[in-house]
Known about the structure:
The chain is an all-alpha fold. 78% of the residues lie in helices and 0% in strands.
Amino acid sequence: MVERLIKKIFDVREGEFKVSLWMLAYIFLVIAVLLIIKPTVNALFLSELGIEQLPFAFLLVAVTAVTSSYFYSKAVSRFALKKVIEVTIISSIIILIGLGILLSLNVVSGVLLYFFYIWVAIYAVLSASQFWILANLVFSIREAKRLFGFIGSGAIIGGIFGGYLTSILAPLIGNENLMFVAALLLFFCIPLLRKIWNIRVKKNGSFRKHKNPVNNTEPPLKLILKSKHLTYIASIVAVSVVVAKLVDYLFSEFASSAITDADELTAFFAFWFSTFNLLSLIIQLFFTHRIVGIWGVGFSLLLLPIGIFGGSFLFLLLPELSAVVLIKAMDGILKQSIHKSASELLTLPLPFDLKNKTKSFIDVVVDSLATGVAGCLLIFVVRGLDLPSIYIGILIIVLVCLWLYFIYKVRIEYYKTFRTNLEVLTDSFKKTKKITASKTSVITGMRTVFKNGTKEQILFMLDKLMEINDKRFADDVELLLEHPSNKVKISAIQNLYFLNSKSMTSEVSELLKIEDRDLTIATLAYILSFAHKDKSFVFDAYLENPNERISSAALFCLAREAKHNYSLKQRYSLLDRISKSLVNIEKNTDNISYLETVIEILGVANMPIYYNKLIEFLNHENEEIVMTTIKSIGSTIDPNLGQHIIPFLEQKKYRPTVIEAFKQYGPQILPLLRKNVQQRLQPLSVIRFIPMAMQSFYSKEAVHQLLGILTDNDLTVRLEVVRALSAIRSTHPQLKFNRYKVVSVIFDECKLHHQTLSSMHTQIIISYRNRTKSKKEIGDAERDARTSLLELLERRLDSGLERIFKLLGLRYQQKDVAIAYEGLLSHKQEAQHNAIEFLDNLLSGELKRKLLPIIEESALDISSEEELQKIKHKIPSELECFKLLLQGNDLKIKLAVLYLIAQQKEPRYLSIVEEHLNDADPKIRSFALDAFKAINEEE
Length: 939
């Protein structure tokens, strides 16, 4: 019962409960001992030596920590961590027994009090640091994220237990006997440590130690300074410790002034420390997971300094013990709950070896040095200048502002570290590696291409030149008229009109001798472009040319020029000439080149009288003729004709030509394409390619129209829409997307994903059960039908995850989402864990709450029954599963479900089969009828 409750609250999974409980017990004992000895030693110190000596104790703690850190680093390098921890525990037990004996002899005073005060301070940070290093060895990143909250509650419970135990026993048995109790409790840490080490660390430790190796010859301080991430963590620790010590000083000063008896003061400290821990436990159990999980590490780290800031401000207004207790409450309650969990998560993205090398240094040396700094501030600033206590409150407020700055900086580095880890693990850094720009100027580079480049390079550069129209390249382009490629010549002619103000008609006219229809049209178009006032001489010279290629090209140019020039149309009898060309086609059916020219003329002429003729040519047996007709229909920009070329999107060979024709229409074709999708004017096999055609416009209007069909019922169409929007975002990030609609669709996808996963879970469980049954009970046909359904459901999950991530790319930075998606699909478990953590920091609010469980589930092996047990959702019955799937819009899955029902022949499914006997889709009706007959035959 208790185990089940703990697993539910803290998400403790199979195989983790025992080791988590042992870890919890370990930190419980460590902190319980601390809360027994700390109030005792603090009370003795203040009663015997007074508050005036406290700053000097802070300084001695710092000096001792720096000195001992050298020897401790040597010990960690030379001995195993387990041995170092055991020696620390045994040494602490001996010191506690010694302190108990000295107290019973009543000889603890002066130097001895300083010794025990310093030892307690070192014990507090070192024992906790050793525990969290051990925790990093025991748990992986994802386990740590889930279990640190549960384990951390052990520290708080230990604090409550130790504090209240001290407050009760101190007046009854005295401080000296409390030390023996503490030594006994600490002794039980040794068997716990050995058990944890043998079961988990021996299995995982060696593997983790070899990951991401760090240069062990470098001292911890140098490693910290080399890493911005660690530098900011150390800075946060330092500032927070200074603030905590100043708060401790205020608390101790006001308390010792109000309470003079040592035992009463001990009880006062013990009561408040335990109360703070009790409130901290409540927050840890019911709020920490929600706050850290939903709002993230950055927000969680802010709560403690903001709370102290508020308490300090109140202290400035009301400098009394009650205000000091409030400041101490903020420090005592939040530090061990929300702040502790968030602080430990800060080191998650760092390599284990780097954490192992630097964490103890930060926790012990930086902490102790900060304690020394606090002592200096109190000695030389507060006491040296004889300042009243209110100035300590002002100093706390100033330091809190610095604390908030470091939190802001570390949050950025925390995010960057996860991103860098993902890039390394998925090799994304190689794909996004920047190419070093050559020192050669752009102009020189372009001229080099024009002179020595391949045909494809030259054509690419000429296309770019059309965009910039730089007249400095006129001479270079002119030389390309001699290039062996006719395509290069055509592009050069098109560029020369914009680059060269002088006419080159005589030079260009020579190109008419080349047997290339497109080149001839481009040449005549160039000649016409320089006949600004009177174009008739060009048509008079070439319309009746005996060369059919030239005369046809001239007729093409006439049709294009006369489209909006009625007098030109009448003067040269354009209608008659086109009709004559059509007659010639019927006489020369084998002349494909001539037929293509006539079709192009029909397109540029844009005369409705010839629209039916163009539609006829769409059914021509020759593929080249069909492609030419599609291009010509694009020239007409007539919506009704455009409707006739949409079906050709289905065929891969025609698809680029259709998209090119749509581009001739311009944005006005987009509403027509959207209408075809929404009203299902085309078969589904055609509709699936319409989003890609809409994408090719890369415009604001294209985004608007695609968003209009983003919620299409068919999942394959929806995936194509999402892919199209993602492609537009990647090349045109400046375009605006309706983020509210995108997030709404992501929520719909999350719901669909859960439904699919639940259905798959049901089918897998039934499939496992059926393995033990004989072939007489479960036939091969039923097994195959269920396997097919499972494959379809798995494919739906994969495509659903792709849709979710591409939609996230419309809401967040696309590169960040793409790296996370790649990490999630990686076969490396470490990459998957880093991807999930990265997304945990990238996402926020409701989107994070709904999406992160799906992302975590996607990293599981859904074919494994053991892994499926980790997924938290209701498992529907098979009847509920079938109803859910048949209510959807996935045709293939519906057919698979009906086919499986037909193989099962179960009467209980008869009602849902009958609902689909009159379905609008003929395939569903047919499969439903087969299932209906199979069930009735069985009866």
